[in-house]
Write a structure and sequence with these properties.
Largest interface: A-B, 43 and 44 residues
Bound molecules: adenosine-5'-diphosphate, magnesium ion
Number of strands of chain B: 12
CATH topology of chain A: Rossmann fold
Strand content of chain B: 15-25%
CATH class of chain A: Alpha Beta
CATH class of the largest domain in chain B: Alpha Beta
Structural class of chain B: alpha/beta
Oligomer: heterodimer
Strand order of the largest sheet of chain B: 6-7-8-3-9-10-12-11
Shape of chain B: globular
Number of helices of chain B: 8
CATH superfamily of chain A: P-loop containing nucleotide triphosphate hydrolases
Distance between the termini of chain A: 36 Å
Largest sheet of chain A: 5 strands, parallel
Mean pLDDT of chain A: 92
Number of domains of chain B: 2
């Protein structure tokens, strides 16, 4: 299965083009890194591929069809700040089970304690919250995962812990992963290939 | 799905890549230890009083018996996972902890106790914070003006423009309000503020996440320069790699205490030079090392183990480990809190 961005063009309002004539293809099971200086459009591209932003030019194609508009999103996005990705008024259990009910095996591998399920988001650290966001994103119907600086705020041990689980699940479910990161060593460790998203010059 | 099992071992790319070279940007001042410490924190504990159901009081100990010191010209990196007490240490030094916090222990600044009166006087002047959250910028003031307000000596406009150009902030940025900046730009503005303030103690709380390589290097270089001009710098980071690039010593935090303080040179190879099992695990988990996690998670302040705080996850654990929190002891030109460390 392929996730394709074809000839993507995007700008915020009347601002400059953030992305222009950008093509990207990721295969199932493949791990692709996206690097580039701050502000070059990595997050924007990730959001477009996951269907959170509509490109002004070009299109996103998943398995020969547009992204589904309803139901479980097969292109899951996990980004840097988990505290902005969870509903502060929901118990962690409800956040976790929003899209699917992760099994105990996944929870245990991610180091999610049963007792945390009864907590509110503000009672957990960033590292603990991010584990929930990852568990939530690894549903059985997930085909691609966009990991936008997913472990940038985390210490090395938590980072390794989360990535091992993600790689393991991705392998079992043949999920393709897009890794957005500034960290060269992490990209080297994880990715099959890397795309450099340095700024495009637009006249 | 066992965490202990090395993942995708058969894959070529998981073979350990070449060790990165750790590049020091400038030579640190020699004989740092002979100077009087700029800041010394001894046996610091911080608790929060929490009211649970039925107005019952509960004491939540978030920092326990923590020690650090920083000398003029030195950069001490404070490394530890999220929730290990790094920001609270910074806030304790600055005297900006919330009012339901209780602090015990001793904080000395240039040989004299750092009372709350002194904290108030020195804050933003001799002691500067580069905060973790960009929300610390005044939302209603143009950022150029904010930076100028902090300038200690000379022409504020000139100083602000120089520092902006050094951090790749275009001239027009000075007229923007904080909400118009990207996260990376806002962080560079915060760093600029500390640079122009002429402070003697600079506490930088996670100043680099989300910055690209060039900006990280530039930000770190400026901290090194500040230290080389005699300032003491505390660089807080959850990322050892950032710390290694410029620090002289590294304090490793875990669950609200310092488990180890080590010279930066000890972070190399397989971590044989390190003292604490947690520091070793942290080092081994880096993607350029073994990328190997350990199971479990840092204990929450409400459920701290009775003895060594790392005991539940430690591979070297013996029954004695759960008896009491190990005393801090000097070991090979560093400090460790572990009864097994050699
Ligand atoms: N919500 C937004 N409104 C206006 N401009 C934005 C918004 N989000 C991002 N931008 C701008 O778009 C550009 C690309 O941003 P982003 O995709 O976040 O880059 P990256 O992730 O590579 O740092 C930047 O110049 C940024 O300032
Ligand atoms: N106002 C507060 N009340 C209760 N607990 C707090 C408060 N502020 C921080 N904590 C707790 O103290 C611990 C250390 O926090 P912090 O210093 O912010 O960690 P770090 O900066 O290392 O990520 C965390 O467990 C956090 O939840
Ligand atoms: Mg981004
Ligand atoms: Mg912090």
């Amino acid at each position: 299965m392929l996730l394709k961005g074809e000839n993507i063009g995007f700008r915020y309002g009347k601002g400059p083009w953030v992305l222009k004539e950008r093509d990207i293809t990721v295969e199932s099971g493949e791990i692709v890194g996206i690097m580039g200086p701050s502000g070059c459009g990595k997050t924007t591209l990730g959001r477009i591929l996951a269907g959170y932003e509509k490109p002004h030019e070009g299109r996103v194609i998943l398995n020969e069809a547009p992204l589904p508009k309803k139901g479980y999103n097969p292109v899951q996005l996990v980004f840097q700040h988990p505290e902005k990705a969870v509903n502060g008024r929901w118990h962690m259990k409800d956040t976790l089970n929003e899209g699917w009910e992760p099994n105990d095996e996944v929870l245990e591998a991610l180091g999610i304690e049963k007792a945390w399920l009864k907590r509110w988001p503000n009672e957990l650290s960033g590292g603990e919250l991010q584990r929930f966001c990852v568990a939530r994103a690894l549903g059985l119907q997930t085909r691609f995962l966009v990991a936008d600086e997913m472990t940038t705020m985390l210490d090395a041990i938590t980072q390794a812990q989360i990535w091992h689980v993600v790689l393991d699940v991705a392998k079992k479910q043949d999920i393709g992963i897009i890794v957005v990161s500034h960290e060269k060593h992490l990209i080297n460790r994880l990715c099959d290939r890397v795309i450099d998203l340095s700024p495009v010059k637009v006249s | 799905m066992s965490l202990a099992a090395p993942l995708k071992k058969e894959k070529k790319k998981l073979i350990k890549p070449k060790q990165i070279e750790v590049q020091k940007i400038m030579k640190p001042v020699k004989d740092i230890k002979k100077l009087q410490a700029t800041i010394e924190v001894q046996d610091l504990s911080v608790s929060f009083i929490q009211y649970t159901k039925g107005l019952q009081q509960k004491d939540l100990k978030v920092i326990s018996s923590l020690n650090i010191d920083i000398h003029p010209g030195e950069i001490l990196a404070v490394v530890g996972s999220s929730g290990s007490g790094k920001s609270l240490l910074a806030h304790a030094i600055l005297g900006i902890l919330p009012s339901n916090a209780t602090v015990t222990g001793k904080i000395t600044y240039k040989g004299e106790p750092l009372t709350s009166k002194r904290q108030e006087k020195l804050r933003g002047k001799e002691i500067a914070l580069v905060p973790q959250s960009v929300n610390y910028l005044d939302p209603l003031m143009r950022v150029g003006k904010q930076v100028r307000t902090a300038v200690k000596d000379g022409d504020p406009i000139k100083a602000q423009r120089e520092v902006f150009s050094r951090y790749y902030l275009k001239p027009e940025v000075e007229n923007l309000f904080p909400f118009q900046l990207s996260g990376g730009m806002a962080r560079r503005v915060l760093v600029s503020t500390a640079v122009v303030s002429g402070a003697q103690l600079i506490i930088a709380d996670e100043p680099t996440p989300g910055l690209d390589t060039a900006s990280v290097k530039e930000a770190l270089k400026c901290f090194r320069e500040l230290a080389d001009h005699g300032a003491a710098v505390m660089l807080i980071s959850h990322d050892i790699e950032t710390a290694l690039k410029i620090a002289d010593r590294i304090a490793v935090f875990y669950a609200g205490t310092t488990v180890e303080v080590a010279p930066v040179e000890d972070f190399k190879g397989k971590g044989e030079g390190l003292r604490h099992p947690y520091s070793k695990a942290l080092w081994g988990a880096l993607p350029q090392n073994d990328f190997m996690p350990i199971a479990g998670f840092q204990p929450l302040p409400s459920a701290l183990p009775p003895g060594c705080l790392f005991e539940p996850r430690c591979s070297m654990v013996t029954p004695d480990c759960s008896k009491a929190q190990p005393e801090a002891r000097t070991l090979r030109n560093g400090m460790v809190r572990c009864i097994h460390a050699t």
